[in-house]
Every structure is written in C-alpha cells, then in structure tokens.
Amino acid sequence: PLVRAILASSALDCIVSLAFASSTLPMPRDVTHVPYALGNEATCTAQGFLLQLGNMGGPLYMTLIVYNYTVLLSKPATA
After folding, report:
1. Rounded distance, CA 19 to CA 14, Å?
2. Which of 10, 43, 47, 58 could form a disulfide with 39 if both were Cys (CB 3.0 to 4.6 A apart)?
3. What torsion, rounded to 10 degrees, do the Cα atoms 38, 42, 43, 45 define?
4. CA–CA distance from 45 to each of 3, 9, 13, 31, 49 (Å)?
C-alpha cells in the first residue's frame, strides 16, 4: 500500500504541475487583458478541477504515507 500511495502522490504532483504550467491558456478567449487566453469555460473549469484535485489529494496521500510509517515504526522490533 505504501508504494501505491507514493505513486499516487507523485501522479497528483504531475497533474498539478501540468495544470499550473498551462497558466492562462485554458482561460476563456473573451477575458480581457489576459495574454494567451485560448480556451473556453470548460477548459477553465477543467483546470480548476485538476488544481483542486491535486491541492487536496496531495496532502491526503502524504498524510497516509506518514501514518503508515508511524504505525510501521511504532511496532516493537522482532528478533
């Protein structure tokens, strides 16, 4: 489970990075004074969804990883 949590956290980081990298591209064309606004309402909403997904999912997976290590390290060592 730990490897899957680390993989999911990394995948969410990649998704958020792509959403941040797209910057103003997904914004609707009719927005004034925004350079490179090439999208529409749907692309803007999709970018917002991906940003929120990563900003909420990343810390949740990190909490899961920390909890897993806490439980793993709190068990007594067996000989």
Report:
1. 9
2. 43
3. 130
4. 31, 22, 19, 14, 6
Q: Rg of the chain over CA atoms, in angstroms?
A: 19
The pTM of this model reads 0.75
Residue 40 per-residue DSSP state: -
Long-range (24+ apart) CB contacts under 8 A made by 64-70 are 64/5, 65/2, 65/5, 65/6, 65/9, 68/1, 68/2, 68/5, 69/2
In order along the chain (79 residues), what is the average pLDDT of each group of 10 residues? 86 91 90 88 93 89 90 82
Please report the pLDDT score of residue 47 as a whole number. Answer: 93
